[in-house]
Amino acid sequence: MSAAGSAGARRALAALERAGRTVAVAESLTGGLVSAALTAVPGASRTVRGSVTAYATEVKREVLGVDGSLLAEHGAVDAEVARQMARGVRALLGADWGLATTGVAGPEPQDGKPVGTVFVAVAGPDGRAAVRALSLAGDRERIRARSTEAVLALLLSELAGNARAQDTEHTGGNGCLQP
Question: Domains in the chain, start-ordered, CATH in brackets?
Fold first, then answer.
């Protein structure tokens, strides 16, 4: 695991714990690296609900609930597939937040997508799901490590945005109606 992935996992878990929230992970190209990064942190059991390594397209469809026609039309390496994976694992494992990774780590292109094409997604308790498209260079190991770092960074970004929204809502900041 990269130092950046380890640091990102520690920060994400600390933020989740402060918020009293849980997380679940759906992984394809990372094959368990995100879950390994999270669960390597002492105390992870307070926030990590579990994970699904959905390497096969059928698992994405049958376990995570990704739309079969979407998979047939666009393949597994797609922004909407990542979004549905994140929402699916969140619902499946009863977590507040769902993370997902899907992409092409190589050595060959997949579904017409070049090596290094990656989508990471985060689905939150408010129903929104953020997706980030990545175009990564390097070998298979580097692409998988960078994908792990990217989904953890996206989670941190979404947690920060969610915390700001809650703070505004609860403390009467901008946008809050007051008598």
Answer: 3-171 (3.90.950.20)
